[in-house]
């Protein structure tokens, strides 16, 4: 994704009503994902939007508490963005907030199963 597409994604987040966040083992490695997460939580706070966290092959407590691979990645981010450390702190806070929701319980979903079901439904609709 180029910077223009990334900026377009950030802008289109404002228009969405529901956000499904799929946290994976490598999610925190992507600064673009972290920027989008921060924007999503800003929209949740300002507009009362719904955020649904999904944890794909990663325990929610690892994401919430930035442990294991998440801890390693954030150490790298802190070094890489020394001059923008507030941004790194915002990313960490956003991850914690996304994993701790008063209105929505954690949703544990096997993404492969969901995608298989989705593809079956989509295929049947496309045939019609």
From TrEMBL:
SUPFAM superfamilies: Toll/Interleukin receptor TIR domain (SSF52200). The chain crosses the membrane at residues 106-126. InterPro entries: TIR_dom (IPR000157), Toll_tir_struct_dom_sf (IPR035897). Residues 1-98 form the TIR domain. One of its GO terms (biological process) is signal transduction. It comes from the Eukaryota. Keywords: Membrane, NAD, Transmembrane, Transmembrane helix. One of its GO terms (cellular component) is nucleus. This is TIR domain-containing protein. It comes from Glycine max.
